[in-house]
Design goal:
Strand content: 5-15%
CATH class of one domain: Alpha Beta
CATH architecture of one domain: Alpha-Beta Complex
Largest sheet: 2 strands, antiparallel
CATH topology of one domain: GTF2I-like repeat
Order of helices and strands: HHHHHHHEEHHHHEHEHEE
Oligomer: single chain
Number of strands: 6
Structural class: mainly alpha
Number of helices: 13
Length: 398
């Protein structure tokens, strides 16, 4: 005889609670709601403070706290560093310390080694675990990168502003006949806006005749200057001789500019002196080169590595002239007290040709006579020539 399923089930009866159990449970949780209310009030106050401080709405702050919802159903997740990740980082450095490149253990092999360890990493002393966490946090901080900024809003702003400006210039030209040229370029490499040019045909012809370039070429050159600085427009020399000549020209040109700044009135023509740089340039004129970390020699005598280094520094403005600041006593740095030359012991005695022409004695006093010998050519009767010496006396007073 088969069993028939019973459709009617008798309700289960729970065991009776011990006397006083509910009262005891209520007494233990007496302050629960008070604590919850305190947390809610503090959270509301913090939301209002953050919204006011960062100029946001309270709804936006709550949406960031509660997982994208304006209700309190889901709370924002907080990222924490796991002890396992810190231990994996510690063991990876320990296992791969003495291994050469190409033989270091991979992450799966390191995890397999950790799984076979008898003593679990969770049971290690708290001091060791704190040290792992600190090392891992420092490693993450050193490897952290800034979040890439989306500059789409800036690009839209620039595009709309330039469009309005071009419309205003176009209507101005229609009303008054004023001709204008508008060129706008980006300021850095992360800004992806292309060059913007606004001009009419007459301005374009003017640029072609005056500068030999189209407006687009000028805009591209201006963009390279804005992003890369002077190096964006510098034409690289083709050989070593041109490179050395270019370095000499740049140094002299920048020296002329700083000389005009050093001497606003009656600017002297200062020529670069590499051999006597300290005395002839720095001490005398009060200007000096900054960033020149190669031997102070003429570019033609430097090796090519130093010449390229100086050239790049001059183009990128890492090597530049500056006015020497005045000393503490207030003396003008451009005034140099020249070193006096020593006086010769025979300064009063005629030297060289004077002795032969004047016949003076070694003491340089009194008058003397000197004889000049003249040679004359004499032709004989037989047609031959001979030389004849004739002496003349010349009296001179000392």
């Amino acid at each position: 005889m088969g069993w028939r399923r019973r459709w009617s089930v008798r309700p289960l009866r729970r065991a009776k609670l011990p006397p006083g159990y509910r009262r005891l449970k209520k007494d233990l949780a007496r302050d629960l709601h008070a604590e919850l209310d305190r947390i809610v009030l503090a959270l509301r106050a913090d939301v209002a403070r953050i919204a006011k401080e960062f100029n946001r709405s309270e709804a936006w702050v709550r949406s960031q706290l509660f997982g994208g919802s304006k209700s309190a159903r889901f709370l924002r997740a907080v990222r924490k560093t796991r002890l396992y990740d810190a231990y994996v980082h510690f063991r990876a450095k320990e296992l791969n310390a003495d291994r050469p490149e190409g033989e270091k253990l991979k992450l799966p092999e390191i995890k397999e080694t950790i799984s076979r360890e008898r003593r679990n990493y969770k049971n290690r002393p708290a001091e060791e675990q704190a040290r792992w966490m600190a090392e891992y946090e420092a490693h993450k901080e050193s490897q952290a990168r800034d979040k890439r900024i989306n500059r789409k809003g800036e690009q839209l702003d620039a595009a709309s502003s330039l469009k309005r400006a071009s419309v205003e210039l176009e209507t101005l030209a229609t009303r008054t006949g004023v001709r204008a040229l508008l060129i706008a370029v980006r300021s850095d490499i992360l800004f992806t806006m292309g060059p913007y040019v606004f001009c009419d045909d007459s301005v374009e012809k003017f640029l072609g005749v005056a500068l030999g370039k189209t407006p687009d070429q000028i805009a591209r050159a201006m963009e390279m200057w804005s992003i890369h600085g002077p190096s964006g427009l510098a034409a690289a020399p083709s050989n070593a001789a041109e490179l050395k000549n270019e370095v000499s020209s740049l140094v002299q040109a920048k020296l002329d500019d700083i000389a005009a700044q050093r001497y606003p009135v009656n600017t002297p023509n200062i020529k670069m002196n590499y051999k006597s740089y300290e005395s002839a340039i720095v001490a005398r004129h009060g200007v000096q080169l900054r960033g020149w970390d190669v031997p102070m020699k003429a570019p033609g005598t430097l090796n090519m590595d130093d010449v390229r280094k100086v050239y790049n520094g001059l183009i990128n403005q890492n090597i530049y002239w500056e006015v020497v600041p005045p000393p503490a006593d207030g003396e003008d740095p451009g005034v140099v007290t020249g070193r006096k030359r020593k006086t010769r012991c025979d300064s009063n005695v005629p030297r060289g040709p004077n002795i032969r022409t004047t016949g003076r004695a070694a003491n340089g006093s009194g008058a003397s006579t000197s004889k000049h010998v003249k040679k004359r050519r004499k032709r004989g009767n037989d047609g031959t020539e001979s030389e004849e010496e004739e002496e003349e006396e010349d009296d001179s007073d000392g």
